[in-house]
Amino acid sequence: MRGLGGIGGGTMRLARMAPLAPWAAWLLIATAGAVGIALAQREVQRAAFETDARIAHRVLSQRLVQHDAILAALALLQPGGEADSAVQRLSALYPQVLRVLRREGRAAWSGDASLAAGLLAAEQASRAARRAALGPIDSTQGRYWLVQAASPAAFALQIEVASLLVPGEWPLAPGSPARATLQLGREPFVLQAGRSLGTGQRFEFDKVLAVESQAFELSLDLAYGAAQWPWAALGLWAGASGLAVAAVAALWRQRRDERRARELLRVGQAGRLNALGELAAGIAHELNQPLTAVLANTAAASRLLADQEPDLATARQAMDAAAQQGRRAADVLGRLRRLIERPQGESAVQALRLAPRLAAALDLLEGEIRRLGLRPQLTVEPPQLAVKADAVALEQIVHNLLTNALHALAQVPPAERRLELAASIAGNRVRITVRDSGRGITAAALPRLFEPFFTTRSGAGGLGLGLSLSETLAMGMGGSLAGGNAVPRGAEFCLELPDAELTA
What we know:
This protein has helices at about 5-15, 20-75, 85-95, 115-130, 230-305, 310-340, 355-365, 365-370, 390-410, 465-475; strands spanning about 95-105, 135-140, 145-150, 155-160, 180-185, 185-190, 200-210, 215-225, 350-355, 375-380, 385-390, 420-425, 430-435, 480-485, 490-500. Strand 3 and strand 4 (about 155-160) form a beta hairpin. The protein contains ten helices and 15 strands. It is α+β, with helices and mostly antiparallel strands. The longest helix is centred in the middle third of the chain and has 75 residues, at about 230-305. Mean pLDDT is about 80; it is low at about 1-15. The chain is rod-shaped and about 175 Å long.
């Protein structure tokens, strides 16, 4: 016998995979929710980053505008005296201003030749642009010069970039993972080094400061990786979704068990009614002949006694009464049989797909199958195989055969238990086979398999009507039922029914 095949095999595979379905559903829901939470958190982080970047841009632009204002005031007021006194006054208000230089007339700028040349070039640029101009830049020290041309004296400020960040105004906390730099050409000033977060998606912001004299480009960079994921929220979601899926799975199992219980009750009721009909038919058959004989004998006796002189009227009345009671018994049994037997027009024979019917029969017995540790094999070839049968009768026959097989398998060790249910074409008929690996059928029981009230179960395990009733139902649908021992061991029962596609 081949393994699980066709539609039936797929149904059985799905049945075995059913316990994994809640885990798969939870994994899918948890993953989808986690992705949604992570994406939402990423957007929150992105929005916060962009807000901080815009604030940083505005704060730095305002700070650099102050430098233009300082130089404009110095150029207008033309204060005299030593530059140190100006530094002292300005540094108290503006910590980023380290030095103030003043050049009068044709004098040279103070400092080394390189610095003096750079300041002179910046002064000329300032005079041409009529605004402050950048002077020499020292990115290694984090400082730069800003020069304002004026008459009679020009002024220059040495500015420390690190002092531009005033606590309370700068939006990025000291331990922030974001990196901030000011850059002019290839000269970068690191405002905030940030923290290394490894690989991940990066948020970036680049914008030139809104100050013409100090056109630095502000760059902010933030890596968003696993370290920023909302692990607490993800854990809560995984737990909540797991509880929800478990609750839904429990409700589904409860409803499935209720449905299975209703189906088992229906099949059991149908089986009891049919067994009762079989019992009534047997009783009627057994009693009808003696009652008929009593009726005939009493009628003959009544005629014979009619010729005798002693109390002929009384004898005739007694015989008539016996005949009347015999007829009454026959009528009662006839009514009982007619009441219990299925009406002639009630048999709903129709074309039925076998795969879902056989899978449903196994599903009804899932509890017993699981208790015995079985993994039944179901094969329907071809998968679209159909029969002409009464749905209830077919269900009851297969249910009876499977129940008998499970009872037989309970008598052997778990490792030796096998159950196979197969359906295939056999000429112009369909053969349904139920095979188990139990102890098989004894030689004494084989000839009596379908005999009413014969059973091999001890105690009150059965009435011995299941196989007899199944054979009756099979023949009523134009089919047959046979049983015997399987090879190498166990029992095998074959139900043959007309093929719905080949039989008119």
